[in-house]
Specification:
With 326 residues, the protein is mainly alpha-helical. 81% of the residues lie in helices and 0% in strands.
Length: 326
């Protein structure tokens, strides 16, 4: 029976190979060896190593994603066929290897691809794409294994798969773009809201400062007005006090003058009375003399006027006032 596919050669094919020479091409040789020996497609699991094939397929799928993104973002007038051609070549190589390794058996392909895809975590997007590719290969294969080996249209399958990948990646990129735009919009809104809040806060602070300043100015103004009013009132009170003091002084001066005048008049009156008393006595003495003289001359001067006590006293009062003044 033909020898098994050497493990060393498989290991070399499983390490860092470019997409156009994909590692899964090893499946064709090892699978054919197993089938020619009358064994099942998966009988060489120890050599085909689905876990290592899955790791390499994950790298290939990364390149497919990049090619699909580049194609979906390609603008008019640009060369857009390079990514599609590269995908077509690597995809055809992988699909042909799987179909030939299974000798055209659809069930074997489905079983092996399931084993490979199971090695990729279900949460990983590459698990889903691996599953889609395996199902697409199995669904495209016919019941006739010979027709699958000879007439299987890998180009048509890869074109269909490419369309699916481009559509999916385009939708994902667009969704990410929308999410990014939304995130940026929300960030801008949040930034604007923060700026508006900050501006409002500053405006409120400035308004509070202005209000406090206005109140302080009003307090100062009221204090100044109160002080001015108090000064006016104090000045008025002082003026009233001065006026009252002046009036009191004038009143006292007047009273003192009147009192002095009364005292002077009293003194003059007393002097006058004293002089009148003396004059009366003198007058009495004079009258007696006059009477005697009158009697002597009555016959000679019948019209003579007899002096009165008041007339006699008047010169004495005048003399007393003159003495006081002197």
């Amino acid at each position: 029976r033909p020898p098994r596919f050497p493990s060393l050669v498989l290991q070399i094919l499983l390490t860092d190979m470019p997409c156009k020479t994909v590692v899964l091409s090893a499946i064709a040789v090892s699978g054919a060896s197993a089938l020619s020996a009358g064994r099942g497609f998966l009988a060489l699991n120890d050599e085909m190593q689905p876990d290592r094939v899955a790791k390499t397929l994950m790298k290939v799928e990364e390149e497919w994603r990049s090619q699909a993104i580049a194609f979906s973002m390609c603008s008019a007038g640009m060369e857009c066929n390079g990514a599609a051609s590269a995908f077509q070549q690597s995809c055809s190589t992988i699909v042909s290897a799987v179909v030939q390794a299974s000798s055209g058996d659809r069930d074997n392909v489905a079983e092996y691809m399931n084993d490979v895809c199971t090695e990729i975590a279900e949460k990983d997007w590459r698990h889903g794409r691996c599953t889609v590719m395996g199902k697409l290969i199995a669904d495209t294969m016919k019941e006739d294994a010979f027709q699958n080996r000879v007439n299987f249209d890998t180009a048509a399958l890869c074109t269909k798969f490419w369309t699916s990948v481009v559509k999916e990646e385009g939708a994902r990129v667009e969704q990410e773009r929308k999410e990014q735009a939304k995130a940026e919009e929300e960030a801008n809104k949040a930034d604007e809201a923060a700026k508006a809040a900050e501006a409002k806060r500053k405006a409120e602070e400035e308004a509070e400062v202005a209000e406090a300043s206005k109140k302080a100015e009003e307090v100062v103004q009221v204090a100044e007005e109160t002080a001015a009013k108090a000064a006016v009132e104090e000045k008025a009170a002082t003026a009233l006090e001065d006026k009252a003091a002046t009036q009191a002084k004038e009143q006292k001066s007047k009273e003192d003058g009147e009192a002095k005048e009364q005292a002077d008049l009293k003194e003059v009156a007393e002097v006058a009375i004293k002089n009148v008393t003396v004059s009366d006595e003198v007058a009495k003495a004079s009258n007696a003399t006059v009477v005697l003289a009158a009697n002597a001359t009555v016959l000679a001067e019948p019209a003579a006027v007899v002096a009165t006590p008041a007339a006699v006293a008047q010169p004495a009062v005048v003399a007393a006032k003159a003495n006081k003044t002197a």
